[in-house]
Amino acid sequence: MRSGLSSKGFYIAALAIFFGLTLLYFYRPLVRLPSRVLIDCNEGWNAFASERLLAGEALYPRYDALISNNYPPLSFYVNAGFAVMVGDHLIAGRIISLLSLFIVAGMLGMCLRQMGGRRVQAAVMQLFFLASIAIFAEHYVAMADPQWLGHAIQATGLYLLLKSENRGRLFYLSIFLMAASGFIKHSLIVLPAAVFLWLLVVDRPALVRFTAVGILLAGLFLAALTLVHGTDFLHGLFSDCRKWSLLATARQISIRFNQLMIFVTLGVSGFFLLPRSKTSTLLFFYFALACIWGAFMFGGEGIDWNALFDMIISGTLIGGALLIHVDRMELQNSSQAGALTICVLSLLAVSLIVPMPYRVFKLRDYWKHRALQVETVADDIRYLAGMRGPVMCEDPALCYWAGKRFEVDMFMTGAKVRAGVIDREKFTDLIESRYFSAIQISRPDGESPRLDEAINRAIRANYAIGRKDSCAGVFYVPK
To answer: What is the percent of the chain with per-residue pLDDT over 90, rounded to a whole number?
Structure first.
């Protein structure tokens, strides 16, 4: 008797619980999606890049300019095309991001089905994945950023790879999608690297084809995009001035380790409990490299939860593989297999239920302040729109919605000043000349951690606080 039949009721219960929790955790991101509220400074940055592309302006400025672009261009093409229909580059980016997240979840389910899983197992793990993302990285749910678009393309490539059995058109299509994903977000190297190591172990002839076609496609993408966008594209992509430190890696791991314990548990359990097969070997490579790469990425300045998305994706797949394995176990006493299934489902459920009280409290607090937040940001936008002349925004979404040009990328400009790429005096001279009619700083004390003390001091010396609120921080105006 198959153990999965004896645990049918527990799967149904898990589906109901996971579905309810996913709705709860997704409620706030879905409600805020069409609203002009501030989520992350990346949103306005991406919206401005998409807008410049649609307007026919240079997508990649000079390397020593005050605005920067260190992302590959394919996401901007997608965003710009969709923005034509939506009418707002930032809101278009949020919609694309949300749809991409759902595509990732869908592809994970299809991968588990390809691995022999039942529909109910795929559905359980899809909901677990979505709820987990909303718990650990809520601001990345429906956030205007290309991260999930890149993962959606890669996850589709992974499904086609599993389905192709390393041959035929689907195999080459999977290579194409993995190569293309790198020109949506160039930090998405974990899955291709895992596939490379996996093929090195299980299928050397396929490895030769994977490597040759992958390098050829990456070279063609790079050459074509350099031809279109010039060498400034290469400078922006490969000349990153952000600071990296081992201390930052250690600090981030210590902060986030307990939160990610469920995925560590799934990965380690899968390594010891899953039988060795081609598929499980691929999943182990994927999970191990995701942990290593995520830890490395955390050492970089300005890196967020997205560094660990590959770990969450691969951990979800291993969790699904565990359910499939237990379901296949032929035991004399089927209750033992049923008990194992219940243990795995309970472990997943507990990880999603524990944050629920805090999330309910936050949701109640959100509704108390939502109307005020929307109204405050609308006032901030009107305030900046009424300014004559250029403005500098630490959160570029405000400048974007106010119809102002993107004059300074404060994060990358600060990094380039510290690296000596941009002359500090040239930038401070601009501030001392009171070139900007307003400067927005997100922190309530008016100090930007993205800019060094000399630049912050120049702002305080030449600008006075003209407006201050709980959403956007401080707005400086010339003295």
So the answer is: 76
Token code pair at residue 196: 């490379």
AA identity, residue 50: S
Please state whether beta strands 463-469 and 438-441 pair in parallel, antiparallel, or not at all (unpaired).
unpaired
DSSP structure string for 33-92: TTS-----HHHHHHHHHHHHHHTT--SS--TTSSS---S-SHHHHHHHHHHHHHS-HHHH
**For the chain, give me the number of helices (H) and strands (E)?**
21, 4
What's the token pair of residue 112?
């588990």
Structural contact between residues 412 and 68, judged by C-beta atoms closer than 8 angstroms: yes
Cα distance between residue 232 and residue 236, in whole Å: 6
CA distance 476 to 375: 20
List the one residue out of 419, 396, 425 whose CA is nearest residue 39: 396
Two tokens, residue 440: 């927005």
Q: Which amino acid is at 257?
A: F
- 463-469 β-sheet, strand order: 391-393, 438-441, 473-478, 463-469
pTM for the full predicted model: 0.94
Between CA 13 and CA 72 the distance in angstroms is 43
The angle subtended at Cα 283 by Cα 278 and Cα 285, nearest 5°, is 95
Query: Of 101, 161, 118, nearest to 312 (Cα)?
Result: 101
**Of the candidates 387, 393, 429, 425, which has an alpha carbon nearest to the alpha carbon of residue 408?**
393
| Segment 366-394, tens digit of pLDDT | 888 888 899 999 999 999 999 999 999 99
Q: Which long-range contacts (CB under 8 A, 24 or more apart) does 346-350 make?
A: 347/262, 347/265, 348/14, 348/18, 348/124, 348/128, 348/262, 348/319, 349/14, 349/17, 349/18
437: three-class secondary structure by DSSP: coil
Dihedrals φ, ψ of 405, to 5°?
A: -75, 155
Strand partners, 438: 391
CA angle 386-389-393, nearest 5°?
A: 80
In this predicted model, what pLDDT tens digit does every residue of 316-365 receive, in sequence order? 999 999 999 988 775 445 566 777 888 899 999 999 999 999 888 888 88
- Name the token pair of 302: 């300005």
Q: Is the dihedral of CA 314, 317, 323, 329 positive or negative?
A: negative
Q: Which of 404, 467, 392 is nearest to 430 (CA)?
A: 392
More confident residue, 327 or 406: 406
Quickly count: other Cβ atoms within 10 Å of residue 37's Cβ: 17
Q: Taking the alpha carbons of 186, 309, 401, 395 in that order, is the dihedral positive or negative?
A: negative
R_g of the chain, CA atoms, integer Å:
24
